Amino acid sequence: MARARTQKVGLLRRLPLFLLIWGCVALAMWIPAIYALALDDHDTSRSFFYSGILGLFLVATIALASSSRMPRRGTLGQLAVLLGCFTVLPVFLAVPFHDALGNTTFLNAYFDMVSALTTTGADLFPDPDRLTAPLHLWRALVGWMGGLLMWISAAAILAPLSLGGFEVTARGQPGRPVSGVAQSEKVDPRGRLIRVTRTLTPVYIGLTAVIWVLLLIAGENGLTAVCHAMSVMATSGISPVGGLEGAQAGFTGEAILFLFMFFALSRLTFSTDTATTGYSRLDKDPEFRIGLMVVLAVATLLFLRVLAGVSEIGAQIDPLQALQVLWGMMFTVMAFLTTTGFESANWDDAQQLSGLGTPGLILMGLALIGGGVATTAGGVKLLRVFALYLNGAREIDRLIYPSSISGAGGGNRRIQSGGAFIAWIFLMLLALTLAVFNLLLAAMGSGFEQAMVLSVAALSTTGPLIELATDVPIRLIDLPGSAKMTLCAAMVIGRLETLAIVALITPSLWRD
User: Fold this and answer.
1) Which of 75, 289, 372, 404 has the most CB atoms lying inside 10 A of its own CB?
2) H or E element: which one contains 122?
3) How many CB atoms lie within 10 A of CB 345?
C-alpha cells in the first residue's frame, strides 16, 4: 500500500505542472455535465462531457510523449506555469461554455473564463436568464478553482520567491529565493507544492461545504447556495441570480457570507504556513486589524452620508431602517474590501432613501486596497498598506524629533524601512499600469470615467465594480474585441501582480 502510494507521488512529481492542472479542470467539466443530465439538458451535458474527455485525452497523450523528460525545476518555472494557467487554460475552459451557450462569440466565452479563473467575476451577461443553470454552475466552479489555485500558489510559489506581498517582510529581493526554508525548496519545489496542496485543499473544500449547508438551512435555493458559497471563498462575486437581491436567504444569508469573508482579510484565519515571526496570532495580525478598522470606519462614514442626505430632502428614517442601512453599508464595504463585490440587498434602499448616487469612488478605493496577502483577494493588499503606514508614522516622528530612534520591534522595523520601500515601488508600478490601461481603453473608444472604472475593476479583480461604480452600468458585451482582450491582460496582471510579471521577464533571474 505504502509502495503504491509512493509510486503515485513519484508519477505526480514527473508530470508537468500545467498538465496536472489541465487534467483537474478537465475532470471538473463532468460536474456540470452530470448536473445538466439531471436537468434533462442533454445538449449542455454532452458539451461538457465530451470536452472533459477531449481534455483528458490530450493530457494523457502529452504526458506519454514527455514521460522521458523531467519537468522544469525551480519555483520561477512554476510561476511561469501559473501565468500560462491564467492565459492559455481559459481557451480550453471556454470550449464547452461556448458550445453550450451557442449564441455568443468564442472571444466572449474566453473573456468570461479569464474573468472567472482570475476571480474577477466581471459579468459579461448581466441577464441571469440568458445562461442555463449548468452554465452558472460552471462559471462559479471555474472561479472557485481559480481561488484554490491562488491559495496553493501563495504558499508554494509566491512565498519562496518573495512575491505576492511576501516581499514586504522577506529578507531577500523580490523574485529571488532567500536563505532558509525558501532556499531549500529550490532542491524540491514540486514536493513543497504537493504538500501545500494536500494541506489546503481539504480546508478550502470544507469551508465551501459549510457555507453551502448554512445557506441551504437559511432557505436558499440549492444552485444559488453552492454558487454563492464558491464565490465567497474565491472572492469572485459570481451569482446565478444577479446578486444578493435575487437571493432567498435574506439577512441570514448575508450574515453567513459576511462571516466567511473574513477569510479574505488574513491568511491566518485558515493557515499559519506563511506566518512571519510575531504575527502568528490573529488578534495581533496587522492585516486583520486594519481590515476591521477600514470596514467600520468607511461603513460609518457612508451611514452618516445617508443620514445627511435624508435630512437634506426633509425625510425621516426610523430606527429599523437605520439598522438595515448600517448593515447594508458594512456588508458592501466588506465585500469590496475583500474584492468579492457582492452588494447588500439594503444598498439600493439606502440610495433611494437619501436620494444620493452610488459612492463609486469609495468603492473603487476599497477594491484597490484589497484584502490580505496570500488570500484569494486582489488589490494592493493590507500588509503593504500597513508597511506604508508604519513608514509614514516614522517619518512624522523624525520631523518632530530628528534624533529619535524607532521603537518598533524587529519585524516592524524591517517592514518600516525596506518593506515600505518595496511596497511603495509596487504602488508606483500599479499606478503606472493603471495609467497604461486607461490610455489603451481610451484609445479604443472608452470615455475617461469608463476607462478608469474598467481598469480599476480588472487590476483589483473586482468585476462587480463595473456595474456599481457608475450611475449607468457599463455593458461589457458592447465593448470592441480589442478592449476585451486588453481587459483580459489587465485581469491576469491584477491576479499575478506586477512584481511577478517583472520577475518573469527579467533574464538575470532565469540565469540564476
Assistant:
1) 372
2) none
3) 20
